[in-house]
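step 3/5: co-fold with pyridoxal-5'-phosphate
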Amino acid sequence: MSRPLIAEIDLDALRHNYRLAQALAPHSQSLAVLKANAYGHGALACARALDDLAPAFAVACIEEAQALRQDGIDKPIVLLEGFFQAEELPLIESLGLWTAVHSEWQVEALLAYRPRRPIPVWVKMDSGMHRLGFSEQNIEGIWQRLLDAPDRVCDLHLMSHFATADALEPRYFHRQLQLLNDWATALNAPTCLANSPATLAWPESHGAWNRPGIMLYGSDPLEGANDASRSLRPVMTLRSEIIAVQELGPGEPVGYGGRWITPAPSRIGVVAAGYGDGYDRHARDGTPVLIDGQRSMLAGKVSMDMLTVDITALPDAGIGSRVTLWGQDASGAMLSVDEVARHCDTISYTLLTGLLPRVPRHYFKDWNEAV
Ligand SMILES: *Cc1c(COP(=O)(O)O)cnc(C)c1O
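step 4/5: write tokens
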């Protein structure tokens, strides 16, 4: 027997979600964003599972790209933030990476570097996110300087990021898109603009390339779900078991600080999962969990290795009962990571990327190709 907490990763669901991103944007190529260990799902396993579908991958830094290369992934890989030091350029060249550039110093470094073959470059424009990228004042000059160096750089694309593509209120999104369309026309540039919410909800933003991330993992980033986002399948199921049961009278506090107090005679299930595994300690009383496929809720603060759930209404639940913290239970019942995130005052991205290495990942697939 070992600790029952595991993260099951459904690679077939990953492929389903990637195909959905493709189908929504039939005239675009879709990068599969694998940064942050594929949002906690395991970058290498996800890259292998998508290798025959995705024309290219994207990561946040050269270390993430290098790890994929070392394990035999030879598709193009885009560095979404480019390089952090000019000294990375030889490695970018030898690993065959594509790089974003967002700052003047990166352009200077690229133009000072003499590669054997030109390096594909995506020029990042700040169209309103105000995080990375060249301003409207600078973009044309930067673009021209890069265009004038075909021995150093090639395949220039205009890249930008949306701040509000997930929101129901469309005005700021449209302002960003209008500006980008104007510049794409002026520069005669192929674009890469759409993240997951834009891929799902804003076909007018789809470019030569899109950059879906979170949707590949089955979380719905939209403030208002649509038919496409409803057809995403969860890739990760975080599952555990009840390891102990407490039968308590009314008025008994449960867990650290006694935050939750039994309102009546209660049965409390103790689950092997805690913040030391990455389950969010901000989870409030009432955060949903599935016990043998039935809804129950968190009762009391999350501990490092354990959490407590109220199973008073589930007389069949006891030691050994299946617990689904998010994902899909064996019965077919679903608990979305998005719903859990709302009870933790956060977003699915932090729960998924925050799952710690001590939780074993178990991969499965039901298609007939080698992973
Ligand atoms: C992470 C990231 C994405 C993917 O965003 P999702 O919301 O996960 O789809 C796209 N573009 C850039 C630049 C990113 O950093």
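step 5/5: annotate
The mean pLDDT is 97.
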